[in-house]
């Protein structure tokens, strides 16, 4: 399995479509879940923590379905951890930029 690429490649026109779709859902699903938890009586910090945990679990399960279920290969934990670190750094940059903007965009 070492011959598999670390990431997938998409043609530019498909990558643009993917960006529109992922931008549409990326934060809105999380905010909806946290909001519903808050409406149910969970304090907002805990609602955010629950939401993060559940979305990470969902992402891991989707990854397992893709790797083991569809591609019939073992998932690479090293690549998962690398991508998780990259995502964390990206989120920190996003938050810093978001705080600095005059009209923050949650997208």
Q: Can you give a write-up of this model?
A:
This protein is mainly α and 107 residues long. Helices cover 72% and strands 0% of the residues. It contains four helices and no strands. It has helices at residues 12-25, 28-39, 44-70, 77-100. Helix 2 (28-39) crosses helix 3 (44-70). The longest helix is centred in the middle third of the chain and has 27 residues, at 44-70. The mean pLDDT is 88.
Topology diagram in text:
Elements (H helix, E strand, L loop, with lengths): L11 H14 L2 H12 L4 H27 L6 H24 L7
Helix pairs in contact: 2-3
Kindly summarize this structure in a few lines.
By secondary structure, the chain is mostly helical. Helix content is 72%, strand content 0%. The longest helix has 27 residues, at 44-70.
List keywords for this structure.
globular, 72% helix, 4 helices, 107 residues, single chain
**End-to-end gap:** 36 Å
Rg for CA atoms: 17 Å
Question: What is the averaged pLDDT score?
Answer: 88
How many helix segments?
4
Largest sheet: none
- The computed structural class is mainly alpha
Q: Detail the poorly predicted runs.
A: none
- Give the SSE order as H and E letters: HHHH
- Specify the overall morphology: globular
Number of strands: 0
The helix content, as a percent range, equals over 70%
Query: How large is the share of residues in beta strands?
Result: under 5%
């Amino acid at each position: 399995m070492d011959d598999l690429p670390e990431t997938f490649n998409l043609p530019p026109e498909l990558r643009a479509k993917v960006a529109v779709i992922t931008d549409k859902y990326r934060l809105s699903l999380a905010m909806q879940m946290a909001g519903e938890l808050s409406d149910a009586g969970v304090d907002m910090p805990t609602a955010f923590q629950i939401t993060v945990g559940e979305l990470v679990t969902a992402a891991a399960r989707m990854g397992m379905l893709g790797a083991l279920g569809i591609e019939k290969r073992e998932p690479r934990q090293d690549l998962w951890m690398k991508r998780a670190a990259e995502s964390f750094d990206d989120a920190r940059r996003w938050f810093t930029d978001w705080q600095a903007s005059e009209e923050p965009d949650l997208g």
